[in-house]
Every structure is written in structure tokens, then in C-alpha cells.
């Protein structure tokens, strides 16, 4: 009975570990966050142009940009993407501010055309400063991606 192999005995050598599959969710999240930030900044320019032409277009563009901003806020939970929270918060605040101004002032579309159109143009110009954040995050992400290779 001493020469038989005991199937319940502890192994004599360390078990081989499987090779980990490298999926870089951080790079993917960074790319999506940069894409949504660019979408917000380009979308705000388009939305302000449509708002100048027809103020009722904000009924679609406001909630749509707010939805993109909320997605960007969720994507930028990581500490290296937190700068995008400013873009997200500013976009949502602009949408809520326009809604409350029109609702509480009981404005008709004609009353809201000039002030809300002007506010949307100012917002679209100011939010273009976000390209500096996008560039910074993109360059930092490229630098991290190059040095991550593990030659084993």
C-alpha cells in the first residue's frame, strides 16, 4: 500500500498558473471618455448653431447632450479621467439652467430665442477649453500604453 499513488495527497510541486489574458480596460475606457468629451464639445457647437436658428431645437439637443454628459461622468470615475467631470457637470448644469430659466420665467419660444440662444453660444465657446483636457488625457494615456509591455 506504500507504493500506491494517493489521489488525495497534497501536490509535491506548485501548480502551473495559466497565462493571464491582458485586456487593458483602462485604455478602452480612456478612448471612450475622450470620444464622449469630443462629442460634447462638437455637439455643443452644433446645438448652439441650431438654437440660434430655431430655439425649439434645444428640446432635443439639451437632453441628448445631457445624456452624453452623464455617460462621460460614469466613464470618468477613474482618477486620471476626473477632469472630464467638469465637462459633464457644465453640460448638465447648462441644460438644467436653460430649462429652469424658461420654465420659471414662463417664456414662450419667442421670448427665449435671444437670451437662451446667446447663453448657448457663450457656453459652446467656453466649453471648447475642454480640448486642453482631452489632449492632456490622450497624451498621458499614450505614454502609459507604450511602457506597459511586459517582455516575459
UniProtKB/TrEMBL annotation:
The chain crosses the membrane at residues 32-52, 58-77, 84-104, 116-134. Keywords: Membrane, Transmembrane, Transmembrane helix. It comes from the Bacteria. This is Uncharacterized protein.
Amino acid at each position: 500500500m506504500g507504493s500506491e499513488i494517493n489521489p488525495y495527497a497534497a501536490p509535491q510541486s506548485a501548480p502551473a498558473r495559466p497565462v493571464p489574458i491582458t485586456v487593458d480596460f483602462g485604455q478602452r475606457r480612456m478612448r471612450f471618455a475622450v470620444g464622449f468629451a469630443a462629442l460634447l464639445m462638437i455637439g455643443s457647437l452644433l446645438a448652439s448653431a441650431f438654437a440660434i436658428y430655431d430655439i425649439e431645437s434645444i428640446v432635443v439637443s439639451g437632453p441628448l447632450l445631457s445624456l452624453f454628459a452623464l455617460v462621460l461622468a460614469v466613464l470618468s470615475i477613474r482618477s486620471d479621467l476626473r477632469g472630464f467631470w467638469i465637462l459633464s457637470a457644465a453640460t448638465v448644469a447648462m441644460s438644467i439652467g436653460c430649462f429652469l430659466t424658461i420654465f420659471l420665467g414662463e417664456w414662450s419660444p419667442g421670448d427665449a430665442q435671444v437670451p437662451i440662444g446667446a447663453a448657448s453660444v457663450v457656453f459652446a465657446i467656453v466649453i471648447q477649453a475642454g480640448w486642453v483636457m482631452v489632449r492632456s488625457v490622450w497624451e498621458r494615456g499614450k505614454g502609459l500604453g507604450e511602457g506597459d509591455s511586459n517582455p516575459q
